[in-house]
Amino acid sequence: MKQNITKLALLLATLACSCEYEKLPTYSGQDQIYFAYADGMSINMTDEQFLHFGYDEPMKPETTLYVSVKVMGSVADVDRPVSFVLVDSQSTARMNRDLELLPALSLVPAGKALGVVAIKLKNTTALRDTVLEATFRLVENECFHTDYTKTRYPNVNSEGKIVSTVYRVRFDNAASMPRLWVENLDKCTQMFGEFSEVKFDLMCRLLGFDKSYFSYDDGEDPLVLFDARINLYSQSWVRTVNRYLNEYREINGRPMVDEHGKEVKMGTSSIS
């Protein structure tokens, strides 16, 4: 009998503890949102990005940029919109003229803690001679808040330099130098001399390739591509272009000059 009473008492105590546990408060309210680079886990671990329209072949009139954002809090079973604004006082780019915010594409999907904000950047004639800057800031909405003053998680890094609710974009289309040349600048300069649009256009015409030959997709290794596409053929390329430049000088009585007024010269035929 005593054993039954003891078991009953233990059962009642367990039920009481369970009831008290169920009464514990749970998290409610808005979750926090921040740009994903700030947690150090993002592929792009920087608070800014530089985009060159000049790398595109053919040239694009506009492009959509997606910047990752992350939730500090819970996931939801519905898509949640992410709100952000252009900070005019810290930007040379202007809304509608140079860019557009895309709220319909700026969201955290259902069941996810990672989302994006979407920005349409426009390739205008002003970009030919100017680098435009745009600073964006995440702002509070019905789903997320951005007030980090009341949380133990800081809104800056250990040096107080990175604000995780701010992201900067710079963009231009003056990057006539193609990506593969940029990533192997020293080697290309040694082989082909200082870059100029006139020289590169001449190389494309004489050697039978276009600008896309000196480009590559994200994820490809520019060093491997350089050896496969360029280094193997550099000697014959340099000889072909130099032969044309010598003929040009003989026919015109002067050297060919580039868009800067400098003589078009090639470098050495190979690298060690």
Q: Could you characterize the architecture of this molecule?
A:
The longest helix is centred in the first third of the chain and has 21 residues, at 2-22. The model is unreliable at 10-28 and 156-162 (pLDDT under 50). With 272 residues, the chain is of the alpha+beta class. Helix content is 26%, strand content 21%. It has two domains: 31-172, Immunoglobulin-like, CATH 2.60.40; 179-252, no CATH class. It starts with a helix and ends in a 20-residue tail after the last helix. It is elongated, with a radius of gyration of 29 Å. The chain has helices spanning 2-22, 179-183, 185-192, 197-207, 222-229, 234-252, and strands at 31-35, 48-52, 62-72, 80-81, 83-86, 99-101, 107-108, 114-122, 132-139, 144-145, 166-172. It is built from six helices and eleven strands. The strands form three sheets. A five-stranded mixed sheet has the order 6-8-3-1-10, with no helix packed on it. It has a four-stranded mixed sheet with strand order 2-11-9-5, with no helix packed on it. It has a two-stranded antiparallel sheet with strand order 4-7.
